[in-house]
Amino acid sequence: MGFLARERQVAPPGWNRWLVPPAALAIHLSIGQAYAWSVFKTPLEKSLGITGTQSALPFQLGIVMLGLSAAVLGTTVERRGPRWAMLMSLIAFCSGLLISAAGVWAGQYWVVVLGYGLVGGIGLGIGYISPVSTLIKWFPDRPGMATGIAIMGFGGGALIASPWSTSMLTAFGATTSGIGKAFLVHGIVYAVFMSVGVLLIRLPSPEFTAEKVALLKDRPKANVGFNVSANNAIKTPQFWLLWVVLCFNVTAGIGILEKAAPMLVDFFKESSTPVAATAATGFVALLSAANMAGRFVWSSTSDIVGRKNIYRLYLGVGALLYLVLLTVGSTSTPLFVIAAMVILSFYGAGFATVPAYLRDLFGTYQVGAIHGRLLTAWSVAGVLGPLIVNAIADAGKKAGHTGPDLYATSFYIMIALLVVGFIANELIRPVDPKFHEPEVADETDRPSPKGDDDATVTKWNEAEAADVAETAEKEDAEGVVKK
Q1: Cα separation of 189 and 184, whole Å?
Q2: Is 135 exposed, middle or buried (0-12, 13-18, 19+ CB in 10 A)?
Q3: Domain tally for the chain?
Q4: Which of 3, 95, 262, 468 is 20 to 30 A from 239 (CA-CA)?
Q5: Listed residue (362, 379, 453, 355) closest to 69, CA to CA
Q6: What are residue 103's DSSP bridge partners?
Q7: Domain co-membership, 290 together with 240
Q8: What CATH number did the domain enclosing 14 receive?
Q9: Residues of the chain with pLDDT under 70
Q10: pLDDT of 217
Q11: Which domain holds residue 200?
């Protein structure tokens, strides 16, 4: 198809690179609806006669499929280009919502699981990784900020979807008919909104090379890796160390996010200032805002202080904040809320910063595919975090425990996981040269590999040479090996 051909996705000369983040946001704000699934849980349970565990299944399957589809299709996304990937995400995600609508109307919950979890989950995975490598190529000087803008949209999608879904259920009714209509409206409106991203996204043009050289001259201090393919990346210890870092950082954050409201009520139930259930709902909204803000603020900061240093903050300070919650969290509601908000900001920031970390280690060649494979860590954490917190809390209730005692063991586990993640981050070093791609491999990463004239090829070579030379000059105490 001509419209989806990679060469048709290349930006014309003079294209404004700041149009690319809005294209990414159009996708991420839409698929971020997944974080608002809890709005449909109770209505589905009442209208279809299912349990709480069953009503959580579409969301859980969706997150699992996000990681799996991103891992399996990551290389295809790189080869076909962002426009193809965004269109496939639109088709899968919105089809999942429409299938869910049909399933609710038919009273067949397994169809909802199939639609939202399986089909929609594939759309989540493709859509999540589709703009990443493109943004990094357009913003070589500020990769953390660029990916932070887009991935902030995924965290903020629930801030739009949650009140919107609630208002539709109020208007249509929390019945099978009303829920089906809400899914139908979601599917149609998100398809229109995501199509904006499909039409707007562009790959950098060969003419952007000269601008790239100028941008890199003023870029913040960064250690940019040589290019490594996705197949070689998973053979390196750096990939698996970063997998541990992401998995444990996400586990620690999602453990609070998934059980935020009842956790706050339990912590202060027997104190002099108990928290009402309605106030706990506001706490969830604050955590969502912190999750979204952290994705932009902390990932942008990583462009200045470096990726390893920022993960030291996420993991080290995160462990200390869990210790604060464990020791004095029940003495002050504001202290508990602030500490939890910072932890959730680190949770969101971990997602936003990791593409830039991958770029530093493995270069821009197939970084989207590598990112997709790394997201299997999210699939594991999405099951592990809630399982740890809920299983231990349920066991504590059976043993007669109350208040903070329900979560003490969980918090100790989270602290241990964050410490392990901190150590894994410290062990990350530059990738061994034996995994580097030959220089000719860069040709496949260029926006217009066919039809470049000799002058353009020369410009690309000069740009890459300047990039490598500056990297060597800016090596710091992190132990970067000159090459």
Answers
A1: 9
A2: buried
A3: 2
A4: 468
A5: 379
A6: none
A7: yes
A8: 1.20.1250.20
A9: 1, 209-225, 258, 272, 277-278, 281, 439-483
A10: 57
A11: 1-211
